Amino acid sequence: MGENRNILLCAGGTGGHLFPAQALARELRARGWLVHLATDVRAQRFVGDFEPAHIHIIKSATLGGKNPMNIVKSALSLVAGYWQSKALLKKLRPACVIGFGGYPTVPPVMAASAVRLPVLLHEQNAVMGRANRFLSKKARLVVMGFGVGSKSGDNNSLVLGNPVRLEVQEAARRSYRRRKVTDKFNLLVFGGSQGAQYFSKVLPEAIGLLDRQSRSKLNLVQQARAEDELELRENLEALKIKAKVAQFFSPMAKYIGEADFVISRAGASTVSELAVIGRPSILVPYPFALDHDQAMNAAEMEKTGGCKVIFQAELSAQRLADELHIAINQPDKLIEMADKAKLTGKPEAAAKFCDLVEYVISGKPVEEFA
């Protein structure tokens, strides 16, 4: 493999793109590789696992909208990012470049392709995002996070799963609680800023429709936007619900591990972490997603019976109250769901992805990777 031990990961500055990049980086470092990250300015919240000297901010922009001036500005940013990336590649001379989606991956991946470096892409969602669709012809292989319902847009793809972080693997060691119907019921509700807004409204309404006995068993942990937090707290207090409400929970994997039941969006990282940890859930796909249908992320877990997918338009307060009543009062059903969810988990995804990276660096054809 030569003396150069640098590998460059490229990712948009959101948790969905950066979490699997972090997980792969940890595995690569354990095998002696020096891992660098090319990303954008939004990434500071999620890059704690990377050394500051190994984080490289690359200019980029989203090519969207119809305003000619904005289109020109975006194009100029991408061109500037391309030349930044060319200089970075000349300095690092990485053995491989791996893109994890988002427009900040476009300049470095294009630059890597231009100088004939091995390129791999990872797509977290079952439906390939716009940046990865654009770059897919430049890659030796596109690693997909999901199989059932997957739409990669090309045939040079391989399903390995989404690499999950160390805290998720640690939470997965915690067996699902064999709860008795008389025990307290630990409910976790989250979903990013947009999901939190919807859940902050519908959940108190649903809890208000529960019978008093079911309601008295609830221990709630719920994510809320800053502008919704006070009203949510007041509504839950009026219902006499024991609740922990915050804008962000860290590490979220710990709370998933402690939950008897989860209600959330169906983002790629969320679905993958629920499967690896093995927790029953109601997943509500975000209805306004631009690039993907979140329902496809949950297709395999839903097919096995590990979760229930309910579209937002169909999830009234009464429907949610009915689902909660069943979950609270039929713990055996949740035990079965938890076991089935875990069957779809891919805790070995980071290790297998790392095997693939080293296989590609060795010069072997990707078609023969097994």
Task: Describe the overall structure.
Helix content is 44%, strand content 15%. Helix 6 packs across helix 13 (317-329). By secondary structure, the chain is α/β, with parallel strands linked by helices. The mean pLDDT is 92. Strand 1 (6-10), helix 1 (15-30) and strand 2 form a beta-alpha-beta unit. The protein contains 15 helices and 13 strands. The strands form two sheets. A seven-stranded parallel β-sheet has the order 3-2-1-4-5-6-7, sandwiched between helices. The longest helix is centred in the N-terminal third of the chain and has 25 residues, at 68-92. It has two domains: 6-164 and 348-368, Rossmann fold, CATH 3.40.50.2000; 170-343, Rossmann fold.
Question: What brief labels describe this structure?
Answer:
2 domains, single chain, 15 helices, 370 residues, six-stranded parallel beta sheet, alpha/beta, seven-stranded parallel beta sheet, Rossmann fold
Topology:
Layout: E1 6-10, H1 15-30, E2 34-39, E3 55-57, H2 68-92, E4 97-99, H3 106-114, E5 119-123, H4 130-135, E6 141-144, E7 157-159, H5 166-172, E8 185-189, H6 192-208, H7 212-216, E9 218-223, H8 226-238, E10 242-246, H9 252-258, E11 261-264, H10 268-277, E12 281-283, H11 294-297, H12 299-304, E13 307-309, H13 317-329, H14 331-343, H15 349-361
Parallel strand pairs: 1-2, 1-4, 2-3, 4-5, 5-6, 6-7, 8-9, 8-11, 9-10, 11-12, 12-13
Short description:
The chain is α/β, with parallel strands linked by helices and 370 residues long.
